[in-house]
Design goal:
Largest sheet: none
Order of helices and strands: HHH
Helix content: over 70%
Strand content: under 5%
Distance between the termini: 52 Å
């Protein structure tokens, strides 16, 4: 496999993971605006399920050597910071 092709697959994999993280953020925004409060068990269940799913996707991409473990960790941490900021803004 050429270096160019490997780089392309890695960039695609990371872009897909970023898109999934963005979908989780949007899902939680919609849930907070329209459905439930952050203290609701349904909110926690959705958030936990989505974050677990994304972490499994990241683990899979790392095992395939499509992304570095640190990239995956940084993506999860970034999403967690954004979700915390959203929760804090909504709670005020």
């Amino acid at each position: 496999m050429s270096t160019e092709l490997v780089t392309s697959h890695r960039e695609k994999a990371f872009a897909l993971l970023q898109a999934d993280a963005e979908k989780i953020l949007r899902l939680i925004e919609v849930q907070m605006e329209n459905l439930t409060m952050p203290q609701c068990p349904l909110y926690e269940e959705v958030l936990d399920t989505q974050m677990f799913g994304l972490s499994r996707e990241i683990d899979f991409a790392v095992r395939l050597d499509l992304i570095e473990a640190e990239q995956g960790k940084a993506l999860l941490e970034s999403l967690e910071r954004q979700l915390t900021a959203l929760h804090d803004a909504w709670s005020k």
